[in-house]
Specification:
Blueprint (H helix, E strand, L loop, with lengths): L7 H25 L4 H25 L16 H4 L10
Length: 91
């Protein structure tokens, strides 16, 4: 599937959604197969990728979660001032 994105922000948000889906599905699998070492390795790998992508997004475009809502260099609280992606933040 060849996807076209309007900008880097839109692509990164899409990638985060895909990675989050993989992590959630692996967690559900591990709930019923807690001794599957391969699944645990995949979970750890994709969880690191998700966290890195969210960190990158937050640094470039503003925080996606409160855990990533640090104050900016000038001391502003970005969480309340930037539009969320569903409010047109990717446009």
């Amino acid at each position: 599937m060849n996807m076209h994105f309007a900008n880097e922000q839109e692509k990164l948000l899409h990638d985060i959604g895909v990675l989050d889906f993989v992590v959630i599905e692996l967690a559900l699998y591990l709930d019923t197969h807690p001794t599957d070492r391969n699944a645990m390795e995949y979970y750890n790998h994709y969880n690191r990728m998700t966290n890195q992508a969210k960190k990158e997004y937050s640094e470039k475009f503003g925080p996606l979660t409160l855990a990533l809502a640090n104050t900016s260099d000038c001391g502003d609280w970005k969480w309340a001032t930037l539009p969320m992606p569903w409010e047109g933040g990717c446009a």
